[in-house]
Amino acid sequence: RKEVEQDPGPFNVPEGATVAFNCTYSNSASQSFFWYRQDCRKEPKLLMSVYSSGNEDGRFTAQLNRASQYISLLIRDSKLSDSATYLCVVTDFGNEKLTFGTGTRLTIIP
Amino acid sequence: NAGVTQTPKFQVLKTGQSMTLQCAQDMNHEYMSWYRQDPGMGLRLIHYSVGAGITDQGEVPNGYNVSRSTTEDFPLRLLSAAPSQTSVYFCASSYGPSGGTGELFFGEGSRLTVL
Questions:
Q1: Is residue B41 within 8 angstroms of chain A, CB to CB?
Q2: Ranges of residues in chain A whose predicted pLDDT is under 70
């Protein structure tokens, strides 16, 4: 089993819709959790951290469920500019190694 | 505002050749790392460093060497290139141990093809 698993998609979603991704992780001792965004042929960039209490940043909401070992990302009122690959990232207990999921590709359709 | 600078951006090698991918950051970050990204495999950690003079192996270190003589530079050496090393390589840095803030700053990537 992979350490971090994501549905690769692609998700093709109409503009204005709400879309959600899940990501599961296998190591119960994982320390920190993040979502990164990667545009085509570009480098990944941090989108948001994921806290136990859940957190929101504008149209984006991230949730963590430690008991079931998954994190989620919800995008509301999707924009064309949201088209990208979304990478789930988990750190080890010492926070020195980040493990990336393979990414979920999202395309927003006009 | 240079951030993380990787060179070269593109490189074609023949099997058996050696080369060095350069990475430099101007943010005084302690933590630096190298990843490779392959289709369907995600980003995989090759080597990382938590400070000058300290390096450690990641998930896929075989065939690669690193050193960290200064805070700014973290070169990745391919000792004897193989077609399996065809990939996109990303260098990244962070303020402290990567999970402290979770924000890795990536270079633009180096696309390597080994024939």
A1: yes
A2: 1, 93-96
